[in-house]
Amino acid sequence: MTIWHADAELLAAYAGGRLDLARTASVEQHLLGCGVCRAGVAAVADRSLLDRVWADTVDVLDRPPVSLGERVLTWFGLAAPAARLACNASTARRAWLAASTLLAVFALAAPGADDRLAVWLLVLAPLVPMTGVAIAYGPETDPMHELVASSSYPRLRLVLLRSLIVVPVTGVLLLACSVGVPGGPRTAVLWLLPGLALAAMTLALEGRFGALRPAVALSVGWIAFAVGARAGTGSVLAAYGPSVQLVCLAALVAAAAFAARGRHPSRRSF
Amino acid sequence: MDIRLTEVTKTFGRNRAIGPVSLEAGPGVLGLLGPNGAGKTTLLRILATVIAPTAGQARLLGYDIASPAGRTEIRRRLGYVPQECGFPTGFTPFEYVDYVAILKEWADRRTRHDEVRRVLGVMGLTDVAGRRIRRLSGGMRRRLVIAQALLGDPPLLVLDEPTVSLDPEQRLRFRDAVSTLADGRCVVVSTHQTEDVAALCPRVVVLHEGEIRYDGSPSGLAARADGRVWTAADRQPGAVVAWRSENGGIRQIGVPPVGSELVRPTLEDGYLLLVGGAGNRQEVPA
Fold first, then answer.
1. B51, B99, B112 member nearest A88 (Cβ)
2. How many domains does chain A divide into?
3. What mean pLDDT, rounded, does chain A reach?
4. Which of A214, B26, B73, B97 satisfies CB 3.0 to 4.6 Å to A205 for a cystine?
5. Nearest to B119 by CA among B69, B62, B177
């Protein structure tokens, strides 16, 4: 324990920032172990400066960690608060988990897969982005829904943000997986337009019926259509013909326009 | 007026949850009492702009909740404590309130974090701000939900059963905090606890079967039971509600038999008389 203390003049020079680097470091080293001198500095230091330094320190300590997903999104130009909303909702994580699990199953099954597995991949692939959208918002999947629903943050923007990671990443992975289906890479992109159309329709109907009900109804409808097309023609690729792609494009445009315009006034919630 | 409801009705399918209800309120604490299923939560969810009324008009802070722009303005000035509120997994109290602050459009990080620290401090949660929420007690979690409602010092506070899970000391602190908060703003508190209403609210509204049965002062509600409360050794035929009191006798509300030992009614007596057997008292069987 030291018995030496810095004199008032030295402490005042330190607190006023008038010492060179070497002497500043020396005084700081001493201050770490000497309560008497720390009290001496506190007496002569600029109070507002101390408050500012303390506030800055607390701000750094309290700052929540930034996840990898947030960093990626901000790198792409998204504002930090929006990136936080996109990445930190537990629903988004659940959506990600569900989609990733589905993908893993496909990824394992698709290489060298028999025809039946490839058929199921083509039937189910368009439903993956829609599932991500469906579980991004709503009382069924969001533990904070009551607070979210009463907040001023635009609802459509929030749903889109929460779908931001799920939809593109699942899209890329599904494209990679579907290379193994009959017809090769050319058919790998066929499901993309139906997938986006189904996701957009879920988004458009969400305001009126919630997200889950339209997603379930659209899933049943799509599976029935794809299975029916295969039964009628012998190939599931019939569900992805030019006319279907055109209908999906029209549905995508209409649903996006409807979702952007706003929702029906008799919706079940605001 | 901060709240102006005109003939508001809400139905779910064929079931009428509330209405028609008309209510006006300005600055101060308004206590909402009622048994389970009375429609309190439905009314508060309408006030919190979570659900739309089926019919009628609702204006909050001068804005019409039917208009999207009005709704956004209301939400910017609203603090809401839902009856049930879950927490995202892995969040700390700081991250949770910060997340809600982002939803309330606090874009600047430094200002937002200062505000998060402030509200956590108001609810006495500074020391646990960095702990995982799953490791907090039920009372702390409830205080956390209340803390997020205080973000931005909103002029309208809607609190649905805020004292659930709080121990007696925490309830006292909560009452103290709300009394302070009520200065100049409109606070609507729904509760089962008549003690909370007696301590907090200069005005009380009793909701029963979706309709307003009483709107006035707590003392006025108690006075409704004047001459209607008595004690006896056994339950008597004129009793609407009866329960065993602390001194072992049966406290009864209803039409007292001649010569009964009348007692001074409390707020709870007035409330129980109003809602009959639908109150929360453990009754003595007839």
1. B99
2. 2
3. 80
4. A214
5. B177
